[in-house]
Each structure stands twice: as structure tokens, then as C-alpha cells.
Amino acid sequence: MSKYKNSAKERSRRKRDSLLTNPLFVILGGLILVAVALFVLWRVNQPGVTKLPPVNVEVSGSPSLKVDQDKVDLGDVPLNETVTVTFQLANTGDETLRFTKEPYIEVKEGC
What we know:
By secondary structure, the protein is mostly helical.
């Protein structure tokens, strides 16, 4: 019985190894990788994709968040009117920036 188990394991191993060394399998895998790389490059160069300018590292050893504007004066806004403001955020540190809580914006009346 153990002789049969060993031969079945051996056949299974040979079949798996032959799939990995099959030239058609290797060529197909390479073509898939090239297609994915071309798609990523094509997507990055689309006109609708915003490219941000590179940011200089200002802090070493930790992440640092920099906002392009500290204050925004919207003037007098009537009640129930929606106002939209856009901010550019950049990590000026040399470490990965991660948010541990939901970011929020504080609105101060009369400032």
C-alpha cells in the first residue's frame, strides 16, 4: 500500500513541476505581467488623472503632513448654502503617513 502512495505522490509532484517549467506557461505569465505594466502606465498618463508635483522631504525619521493653505476665508455664507473648498495635502516626512482616526476639519465662526 505504501508503494502505491509514494508513486501517486511522485506523479503529482512531477505533474506540478512540469506545469511550472512548461515554456508556454512561462511565456503566458510574462505576457500577463507586461500587459499589467502597460495598463498601469497607460492609466497614469490619462488626461483626467491629476499629477501632483514632487514634495521635498522636510522631516526625517517620521511622517509629516503639510497643507497648502492654513486658513480659508469664505466670507459671509448664507444659511443652508453648500460651500466647497479644496485642499492639497502632502507628506513631507520620509516615513509612511497613516491616519489612525477619521480626518476632520474644524470650522470656526467669525474667524
